[in-house]
Design a protein that fits this description.
The chain has helices spanning 13-45, 63-74, 110-123, 137-148, 162-169, 171-181, 194-198, 218-221, 286-298, 384-402, 423-426, 428-434, 459-467, 469-478, 492-497, 528-536, 551-554, and strands spanning 54-57, 78-83, 98-101, 128-130, 156-157, 188-191, 207-211, 222-225, 242-246, 250-260, 263-271, 279-280, 303-312, 318-324, 357-359, 374-375, 440-442, 447-449, 485-489, 503-509, 521-525, 541-546, 558-566. By secondary structure, the chain is α/β, with parallel strands linked by helices. It has a 5-stranded parallel sheet with strand order 3-2-1-4-5, covered by helices on one side. Helix 5 (162-169) crosses helix 6 (171-181).
Length: 575
């Protein structure tokens, strides 16, 4: 292979990163200040809404989140928006009443993430959580629902728990769910090693191979192999499997559904393209709607789900290829529907659906560049989100992820259609001088595509939680920061769950209970009044898991920064 052309970088990262940061945050804080003035003016003319619900909506930087936030405000809700950084388009919307920053998504700190989410829910008196979700966040939210629904029974999570979220998100498991419900899917299989590649019928059909854990970077994580051609080299393993499917020649679509307890309340569709950056709303074809509505009903799904499907050119038949268990940008093509936010509260709004077309000034695919498409972030009555989404956040994305240097191809492939050419494609030499190395920016969902595979989701750790949500939650409470945690409990079940943990257990037992101390356990014979005696002796505990009626007394022996949960509030055990 010929060597890459020479590349000259003139601006080092320690110069360009601070400059981008100053520019991005200058715009951001100007919008924050303007937002305070707009909200103050709004409060002066807006009538208070009686009995309104407080709704937490995640991933505020995305356009679909903003559309949901505005729809909820139309329903009279108090809306809180979360994100993973302070810069967030929906946070400066006049429809937003508060914002919060979540902890980073770290599979080694899932409990910390859920605990922090719980603190936000309690602080803001949240009644409903609507996860809009990044690809990785969906599984974290599923864990949060499993761990918190007993503890916070009044909070409605507009999603499924971890088990169903993981099944729907896993391309191979989703195919099995479809087959069980009679939903048409193409021939497919799993690839976990080089030997599996040899079993794929490349000589009989066109094949598409996709990484199961992620397909954000389509260039590197989705491979199409034409009939009779040699398969590509992929690094499939048991821990990082890929899926193959018969490649359907035809038009690809994505259908989005809102559903509650297996009943659909809203839906929409668009024609799908790789890294699509404009959204022209369509009706879901009747046969597709019927099949997926049956799927939703059989599995009693709650939440938002996007089902990708192909209509085969040669037969006219449709085949569902995957499910994204989260909100979809499809909703931007039906968000003109009046009062559509009621779908989140059980009202079927499909009869009054209005279809529209959405694009973005940043990508030059809406008015005035393209007639008939509205700007996805802009509203005359809500002007700030577009400034953050299409100016401040792209600069911050460049600062965080693209100042990595390196050579840029002069013939970039797989650029989004009808979205303009990114600066890295128009002026590659100039970007090389600045040290910018990226494929394109997507302002719709607030992401930037840079070289290399995306980080996987570590399904193994989520599988451990899925298999034992009650036990993993108890151990997470007790095993704090690898220190020798002191645990007080009156539950033999809790003590058994902690038997292999490096904790010191004090278990309160009734005088009539026949019990022997095991391993790391100390038995204390008595009743709830015994807890008060422990407090008088100066005993303190880092984690307390006792019956609900003992929690008030137990506060006297809870160490600073300690955690206390009633046994009744623990997650349900797997049947």
């Amino acid at each position: 292979a010929s060597p890459l052309p020479s590349m000259v970088r003139l601006v080092p990262g320690f110069v360009s990163k601070p400059l981008l940061g100053v520019a991005a945050y200058s715009v951001w804080y100007s919008c924050v200040l303007a937002h305070k003035f707009l909200k103050a003016a709004q409060a002066g003319v807006q009538r208070p809404c009686k009995n309104r619900k407080t709704v937490l909506v995640t991933t505020g930087r995305q356009a679909k989140t903003l559309h949901i936030v505005r729809a909820l405000k139309e329903q009279g809700c108090r809306v809180i928006v979360s994100d993973y950084q302070s810069i967030s388009a929906s946070a400066v919307s006049t429809a937003c009443d508060g914002s919060a920053t979540l902890l980073p998504l770290d599979t080694n700190r899932i409990f910390k993430w859920v605990e922090h989410l719980e603190q936000i829910i309690v602080r803001e008196s949240v009644d409903m959580v609507i996860p809009v979700c990044t690809i990785n966040e969906a599984l974290f939210v599923g864990v949060a629902k499993d761990w918190l629904q007993q503890k916070l029974p009044h909070v409605h999570f507009m999603c499924e728990g971890l088990e169903k979220m993981a099944q729907l998100d896993n391309k191979d498991l989703f195919v099995k769910m479809c087959v069980d419900c009679g939903v048409p899917v193409p021939d497919s299989g799993l690839v976990t090693c080089p030997e599996d590649l040899k079993k794929i019928p490349f000589s009989e059909m066109d094949v598409i191979i996709k990484r199961i854990e992620s397909s954000v970077n389509r260039t590197e994580e989705i491979k199409i192999v034409r009939k009779g051609c040699q398969p590509p080299v992929i690094n499939a393993t048991e821990d990082d499997p890929w899926q193959w499917q018969r490649f359907i020649k035809g038009e690809e679509y994505s259908a989005w559904f809102v559903c509650i307890d297996g009943r659909v309340t809203f839906e929409g569709c668009y024609k799908s393209l790789d890294d699509l950056l404009y959204f022209d709303g369509l009706a879901v074809p009747a046969e597709v709607s019927a099949a997926i509505e049956k799927f939703i009903s059989v599995h009693k799904l709650t939440g938002q789900y996007a089902f990708d499907y192909f209509v085969e050119a040669s037969t006219g038949e449709f085949f569902v290829i995957e499910c994204n268990p989260r909100a979809s940008s499809v909703l931007e093509g039906v968000s003109k529907t009046p009062g559509w936010g009621a779908c989140f509260f059980g009202q079927d709004v499909r009869p009054q659906t209005i279809y529209g077309n959405t694009g973005f000034w940043f990508h030059r695919n809406c008015w005035p560049f393209v007639s008939g498409r509205q700007e996805g972030f802009f509203s005359w009555t809500d002007p700030l989100p577009v400034i953050v989404a299409e100016l401040a956040w792209p600069m911050e994305l460049l600062r965080m992820k693209a100042v990595i240097g390196g050579w840029l191809t002069r013939k970039p492939e797989n650029l989004p259609q009808q979205a303009g050419r990114p600066i890295s494609a128009v002026f590659p030499s100039f970007c090389e001088y600045l040290g910018f190395n990226y494929h394109h920016v997507d302002v719709n969902i607030g992401k930037i595509i840079v070289p290399g595979p995306t980080v996987g989701r570590d399904y193994a750790k989520f599988q451990i939680i899925q298999d034992d949500p009650r036990g993993t939650y108890v151990r997470a409470i007790a095993e704090q920061d690898d220190s020798a945690c002191r645990v007080l409990t009156d539950s033999a079940e809790v003590a058994e769950m902690l038997r292999s943990s490096k904790v010191e257990i004090t278990r309160l037992v009734d005088g009539l209970e026949a019990a022997e101390a095991q391993g790391n356990e100390t038995l204390l014979v008595g009743n709830q009044n015994t807890i008060l005696q422990l407090g008088k002796t100066g005993s303190m505990f880092d984690a307390i898991l006792v019956a609900q009626d003992a929690c008030e007394m137990a506060k006297s022996v809870l160490a600073p920064q300690g955690r206390m949960v009633s046994v009744e509030a623990l997650p349900k055990a797997v049947a």
